[in-house]
Amino acid sequence: MDQDLLAALDIGGTKIAGALVDGEGRVLLRARRPTPAREPGGTVMGAVAEVLGELRAAPQWGRVAAVGVGSAGPVNAGRGTVSPVNIPGWRDYPLVAGVRERVGELPVTLVGDGVAITAAEHWQGAARGRDNVLCMVVSTGVGGGLVLGGRLHPGPTGNAGHIGHLSVELGGEPCPCGARGCVEGFASGPNIARRALADGWRPGPDGAAGAAAVAAAARAGDPVATASFERAARALAASIAATAALVEIDLAVIGGGVAQAGEVLFAPLRRTLKEYATLSFVRHLEVVPAGTGTDAGLVGAAAACREVLGRPE
């Protein structure tokens, strides 16, 4: 067909990525800018505009049928606005209107980034063919999305499954979202590193102090680094088990940068999950790594368009 491609935006606290995606979920072209997360909202939108401008300059742009946007949340799909916890300059920011100014008459679909990654995993990844799934992205923040009864379940505003702000410690530290003891405060990459540093872990000679460095130290047997990942795993396990008890998922898929730690995260997560998923109908719950890799947000934003366009998954 003439319009057989989808444009996708993946907007997070660290990067703004864009792509052209074909009907098989293949990324044909990429564009990327760092997120000026501490700058005013217009500056952040300027980075989005640069990414869109690079995509629009591509010769394939004429084949684009729609634009999908997966953004850090909360989002409000009905109003086309976003209020990402990790982008303070965007509060009820009219992101869809800003995108439409730059893409003309093309349809624009907005979902939370966790919902986008869920759409990707259900279309092309580890949740393909499964009917009741929680997908999580554990990265700069912690997000998620749900597949229920075989269909993506974004909820009325596009935020359903936003598990990072489920409280797992009722009297815990204040979270930027306004609540206390959120999963994100334990399991996001920056918080894994922050807690390890606070407990006495020190970076190696290269000075790297992020979650990947903590994971490397844990892999080498550092007890403080290991404890930080076990704390993150426990928070994730509690939230996954709670979700399973509520909506009877039978699979949890975990992606994002922190999931790249591999068994440093997944081994304590699977072990700890047995302590929380104790009811008879959740004991069979599986936890697996995401299958769509670093392009999950982009493929998912494209996948979110497909339903709007009436194209089967």
UniProtKB/TrEMBL annotation:
Pfam families assigned: ROK
InterPro entries assigned: ATPase_NBD, ROK, ROK_cs
Signal peptide segment: none
SUPFAM superfamilies the record matches: Actin-like ATPase domain
Coiled-coil intervals, chain numbering: none
Domain of life of the native organism: Bacteria
Family affiliation: Belongs to the ROK (NagC/XylR) family.
Name of protein: ROK family protein
Species the sequence originates in: Streptomyces carminius
Lineage of the species this protein comes from: Bacteria, Bacillati, Actinomycetota, Actinomycetes, Kitasatosporales
